[in-house]
Amino acid sequence: MEARVTALVLLVTVSSILYTGAGAAAAGGDERAALLALKAGFVDSLGALADWTDGAKASPHCRWTGVRCNAAGLVDALDLSGKNLSGKVTDDVLRLASLTVLNLSSNAFATTLPKSFAPLSNLQVFDVSQNSFEGAFPAGLGSCAQLATVNASGNNFVGALPADLANATSLETVDLRGSFFGGGIPAAYRSLTKLKFLGLSGNNITGKIPVELGELESLESLVIGYNVLEGSIPPELGSLANLQYLDLAVGHLDGPIPAELGKLPALTALYLYQNNLEGKIPPELGNISTLVFLDLSDNSLTGPIPDEVAQLSHLRLLNIMRNHLDGTVPATIGDMPNLEVLELWNNSLTGQLPASLGKSSPLQWVDVSSNSFTGPVPAGICNGKALAKLIMFNNGFTGGIPAGLASCASLVRVRMQSNRLTGMIPIGFGKLPSLQRLELAGNDLSGEIPGDLASSTSLSFIDLSHNHLQYSLPSSLFTIPTLQSFLASDNIISGELPDQFQDCPALAALDLSNNRLAGAIPSSLASCQRLVKLNLRHNQLTGEIPKALAMMPAMAILDLSSNSLTGGIPENFGSSPALETLNLSYNNLTGPVPENGVLRSLAGNVGLCGGVLPPCFGSRDTAAARRAAAARASAPQHAAVGWLHGDAAPRRRPRSRRWSAGDTAVPAGEYGYTLKVDQKSDIYSYGVVLMELITGQRAVEAEFGEGQDIVGWVRDKIRSNTVEEHLDPHVGGRCAHVREEMLLVLRIAVLCTARAPQDRPSMRDVIIMLGEAKPRRKSGSSGAASGKDSTSPTAIAPAVVVDKDRPVFSTTPDSDYA
Fold first, then answer.
1. Potential cystine with 32: which of 61, 212, 606, 742 (Cβ 3.0-4.6 Å)?
2. Distance of CA 503 to the CA centre of its chain
3. First CA to last CA distance, the chain
4. Which run of H or E residues covers position 749?
5. pLDDT at 3 over 70
6. For residue 96, what are the CA distances in angstroms to 44, 131, 140, 376, 534?
7. Phi, psi of 518 (to 5 degrees)
8. How are beta strands 75-79 and 67-69 bridged, if at all?
9. Where is the Leucine-rich repeat-containing N-terminal plant-type domain positioned along the sequence (predicted)?
C-alpha cells in the first residue's frame, strides 16, 4: 500500500514537471512570435535588432539583443533603449505577460502607445522617456501592484495626467516632465506614500498645487514648475520631512513664500524663480541648514535681504535678482564660506557691498548691476582665485579699480561701466589668459590706456568710452588676435592713430570719436577685412581719405565727420561693396562728388561740387545739374545732404493726410538720398516717401539711432517682425484690412529702396504693383482663394498674392540687407 502511494506521488510530480515544461515551451514560442511581430512594427535603421530572426539557425529569443528571460524561460525584461528605433509599438508587446521591465527610452518613436498596459500586471519599470510619443498616456498601469518606476519624460503626450497611477501604491518615481499634459494635478496622488520623485514640469498643467501633496511622506524631489499653475504655494509642503529638491520655477504662482518652507530639514535646492511671488523673503529660510541652492529671482519680492540668509553655511548659489528688494546687503553675506554665485542685479539695493565679499568664499560669478550701490569695490573680491564674471554696471561705486582684479587669472568678463570709478586702469588685464570682455565705460577714469592690453590673447571686447583717459593709444593695441570691438570715444586721447593694423583678423568695430587724435588716417586700416563700423568723428585728423578704405569688404558704417580732412572724396567710394552709411560732413574736402553710388552727409564741405551740389566749373552734366537745381529751389537749404546728417529735416507731412495706394506724389528734396540723379534715384526717393506716409515718421528721427535713416529703420523692424507695430494709426493702422494694405505698400517701398540701383523696379512697375496691392481676403472672396479661374475680375494678381499662413514680410526682404 505504501509503495503504491509513493509511486502515485512520483507519477503526479513527473506529470506536473512535464506539463510545466510543455507550458513554458508553448509560452516561449508565443513570446518569440510576439517579439518578431513587435519588431515588424519598428523601423530599425541601424540594424540594432539584426539577431531578432526566425528559422532553424536562429538563436533562442532569450539571447536576442535587449531581451532577458527568467528561470522559467519567459521574457521578463525588454530593454531597447538607445537603439534609434522608430515606427510603431504594436499591441504585440502585451503578449509578454511576464514582463517586469519595459524600457523603450531614447529612441525616435513618434506614434501612439497601446491604449492600455493592464495585461502587463507584473511590470515594475515602465520607461518610454526621450521619444516623441503622442496622444493620450496609456491607461492600466495603476493595476500593476509592483510598479516602482514610470518615466515618460520628453515626449508629446496630451490630455490629463494619468490619475490611475494613484492605485500603484508601490511607485517610487513618476516622471512625466516635458510633454503637453493639461488639466490639474490629481489630488489622488496623495496615496503614493512611497513616492520619492514626482516630476511634472514643462507641461500645460493648470489649477492650484494640491495641498494633498504635503502627505507624500517619502517624497525627496518635487519638480512641477514650467506650467500654468495658479494660486499660492501650499504651506503644507513644509511637512515633507524628506524633501531635498523643490522646483516650482516658472509656474505662474503668486502670493507670499510660505514661512513653513523653513521647516524642511533636508532641503538642498529651492527654485522659485520666474513666478509672481510677492511679500518679503521669509527669515525662516535661514533655518534650512542643508540648503545649497536658493533661487528666488524674477518675482515681485520686496523688503530687505534677511540677515538670516547668511546663516546658510552650505549655500553655493544665492540668486535674488530682478525683484523689488531694497535696503543694504547684510555684511555677514561676505563671510559665507561656500558662496560661488551671487546674483543681486536689478533691484533697489543701496549702501556698500560687504568689505569681506570674496575674501573667504570661492566666488565664481558676482552680478550686482542695476542697483544703487555706493562705496568701493571690495578689494578681496577675487581672493578665492575662481571669479570668472564680475558684473557691476549701473551703480554708484566710487574709488579705484582694485589692483587685485588685474591679477585675477580666472576672470572672463569684467563689466563695471556706468559707475563713478576714479584713478587709473590697473596694469595687468592684458595678461589675464581668459579675459574676454573689459567694460569700463562711463566712469571718471584717467591716465593712459595700459600698454599691456596689447599683449592679450583673449580680449574680444574693450569699452573705455566716456572717461577722462588721455595720452596716445598703445602702438600695437589693434594687433590683439581676438579683438572684435574697441570703443574709446569721448575721452581726451591724443597723438596719432597707430599704423599697425596689418594684423587685426577679427576687428569689427572701432570707435575713437570725440577725442583729440591728430595726423593722417593710416592706410593700414584697410587691412582689417572684417571691420564693419569705423567712427573717427570729432577729432583733429588731417590729410586725405585713404582710397583703400572704400574697398573694405565688410565696411558698412564710416564716420569721418568733424575733422580737418582735405583733398577729394575717393571716387571708388561709389562702388564700395558693403557701405551703407557714410558721414564726411564738416571737413575741408574739395572737388567733385562721385556720382556712381549712394553717399550721405556731406554738409560743411564748401569745396565740394557736382551731383546735387552746385555744378563743378565746366561740368558737362547739365541735365543732372538742372534737376538738382530744381530740387534745391523748392527744398530747404542743404536738404540734399542734410536729411541723414540731421542739420535740416523735411517738412512733416500731416498725419491726417488721406492717401491711396495709387498716390504717386514725390516731394521736393527727394534727391537728398543720392548723389546720382537719375530715374533709379527717383525710385529710391519715392520709396522713402512711401515709408514716411505709412509709418508717419520723418526721413530721419532721433529714435532711429545715430547714423540711421528711415530705410534702415524700416528694414530693422522687418527683420525683427515688429513692423506692424509702427504703422501710422492715423491713416488706418488700427484697422486690420487697411493695415494689411499698408504692409503690402511698404513691401513695395522696400523694393524701391534696394541698395543696388539695378535691383529697383521701374516707375511703371511701381504703379502696377500699387494698383494690385490689395489685402488678402477670406477664403472664397477671390479667384485665387476659391480656386476659380485666375482671369476672374476678383482674382488677385500673382505678383501680390499673399499666403494667408505667412507674414506679409519675411525677415530678410532682400539680399542686400540679409
1. 61
2. 32
3. 103
4. helix 736-752
5. no
6. 21, 22, 15, 71, 72
7. -130, 180
8. antiparallel
9. 30-70
CB count within 10 Å of CB 737 equals 12
Domains 36-181 and 183-189+202-278 belong to one CATH topology = yes
> What is the number of alpha carbons within 13 Å of residue 460 lying toward its C-beta?
6
- Max Cα–Cα distance, the chain, nearest Å: 144
With bands split at pLDDT 50, 70 and 90, how would you rate the model's confidence at 737? low
The CATH homologous superfamily to which domain 671-772 belongs is Transferase(Phosphotransferase) domain 1 (1.10.510.10)
Burial of 570 (0-12, 13-18, 19+ CB in 10 A): middle
Is the pLDDT at 183 greater than 80? The verdict is yes
Sole residue written with cell 500586471 = 121
Q: Is the separation of the CB atoms in 219 and 196 below 8 Å?
A: yes
Residue 468: all three cell numbers together: 577722462
C-alpha cell at 759: 535691383
Give the integer Cα–Cα distance in Å for 425 and 445: 7
Q: In angstroms, rounded to a whole number, what is the distance separating the alpha carbons of residues 447 and 669?
A: 48
Domain boundaries in the chain?
36-181, 183-189+202-278, 671-772
CA distance 510 to 529: 13
With bands split at pLDDT 50, 70 and 90, how would you rate the model's confidence at 179?
very high
23 in helix, strand or coil? helix
Please give the single-letter amino acid code of residue 474: P
Relative to beta strand 85-87, strand 42-44 is antiparallel
Provide the pLDDT confidence category of residue 766 given band limits of 50, 70 and 90. confident
- Spell out a b/e string for 105-119, using b for 16 or more CB atoms within 10 Å of the CB, else e: bbbebeeebbeebbb
Question: Cβ of 789: how many Cβ atoms within 10 Å?
Answer: 7
Taking alpha carbons only, the member of 671, 586, 665, 658 closest to residue 624 is 671
Q: State the alpha helices, DSSP H only, in 586-735.
A: 622-633, 639-642, 679-695, 710-719
| Amino acid code (one letter) for 141 | L
- 696 within 8 A of 655, measured Cβ to Cβ: yes
Specify the length of the chain in residues: 818
Please report the DSSP string for 203-254 in residue order.
SEEEEPPPGGGGG-TT--EEE--SSEE-S---GGGGG-TT--EEE--SS--E
Measured distance CA(391)–CA(411) in Å, rounded: 11
Q: What residues contact 71, with CB distance under 8 A and at least 6 apart?
A: none
Neighbours of 791 (CB within 10 A): 7
C-alpha cell at 728: 501710422
Which residue, chain included where needed, has cell 507731412?
653
- Please state which of the ranges 241-245, 507-511, 522-526, 586-590 shows the lowest mean pLDDT: 522-526
- CATH architecture classification, 36-181: Alpha-Beta Horseshoe (3.80)
Query: Would the pLDDT of 464 be above 50?
Result: yes
The SS3 of residue 475 is: coil
DSSP tag of 641? H
Per the CB < 8 A criterion, the answer to whether 136 and 158 are in contact is yes
CB atoms within 10 A of CB 245: 18
- 307 closest CA partner among 286, 289, 291, 322: 286
Contact 305, 329 (CB under 8 A): yes
Architecture of the structural domain at 183-189+202-278: Alpha-Beta Horseshoe (3.80)
Angle between helices 710-719 and 679-695 (to 10 degrees): 60
Distance between CA atoms of residues 234 and 250, nearest Å: 16
How crowded is residue 615: how many other Cβ atoms within 10 Å of its Cβ?
18
Residue among 260, 340, 252 at smallest CA distance from 298: 252
Q: What pTM, to 2 d.p., does this model score?
A: 0.73
Residue type, 31: E
**pLDDT tens-place string over residues 37-48:** 999 999 999 999
Enclosing H/E stretch for 19? helix 2-40
Mean pLDDT, residues 536-555: 92
Which residues, 6+ apart, have CB-to-CB distance to 180 below 8 Å?
156, 157, 158, 203, 204
